[in-house]
Amino acid sequence: YDNVRAQHKLVTEELGISKIKLVTGFSMGGLQTFHWAAMFPDMVENFVPICGTAKCSGHNWLFLESLAVAIAVDPVFDNGNYIQYPHAGMQAFNTIYSAWAFSQEFFRQNGHKNFGLDSYKKMPDAFDDRLGPKEPNDLLIHIRAWQNADISNSPLYNGDFKAALGSITAKGFIMPTSTDQYFWADDNRDEASLIPNAAFREIPSMWGHVGGSLSQPDEKKIVDDSIRELIG
Fold this sequence. Notes:
The protein has 2 domains: 2-55 and 149-231, 3-Layer(aba) Sandwich (Rossmann fold), CATH 3.40.50; 58-145, Rna Polymerase Sigma Factor, Chain: A (Orthogonal Bundle). It is globular. Helices cover 47% and strands 7% of the residues. It is built from 10 helices and 4 strands. It has helices at 2-14, 28-39, 58-72, 87-100, 104-108, 123-131, 136-147, 161-166, 185-193, 217-231; strands spanning 23-26, 46-50, 171-174, 198-200. By secondary structure, the protein is of the alpha/beta class. Strand 1, helix 2 and strand 2 form a beta-alpha-beta unit. The two termini are 29 Å apart.
């Protein structure tokens, strides 16, 4: 809510924009896409959240909490006042994240070989290598923002989730991957049923949440074609 309010202030007051043709985003960007559509229905004409829901589910919240705990229990972290980098906590973070970012089917199909690895056991290190060094305190703030995402948690809707979804007037496609373990397709299907001009459109993928990053050309084409269909 607060992040999107800040974005709206920038877009309207600094850039002078009063209408937005399309809001779209992946993962937490998908969460924000839902927020834009619910908070500013007169401004947003079309919206396409990719691998993101209108609120953080209980299962998603607990997954995120496991990441936060992994960092916090490293004594070197020292409640965020670390002097040396908390390598043990971050290794635990990477191990949890690399397992949940992909699907069971990804591992069943030896998906690790797509990263040039000879074993799935090397996925945490590869995950760290690809993303680079991460600041633990920044990650914790990131996690808390994700956990608290809920389009109804604002003075506009006072916790009425169905009313928040029903207020969205923009046309949209809600696009999860079929195997995302963070943002479940079934949650998106339910959300789409409560939004007047939105349709549920699933991206078939073995890549789990990572599939939504559109690194696979066939999956990217599904999203590109859907956006073209939506906005003409």
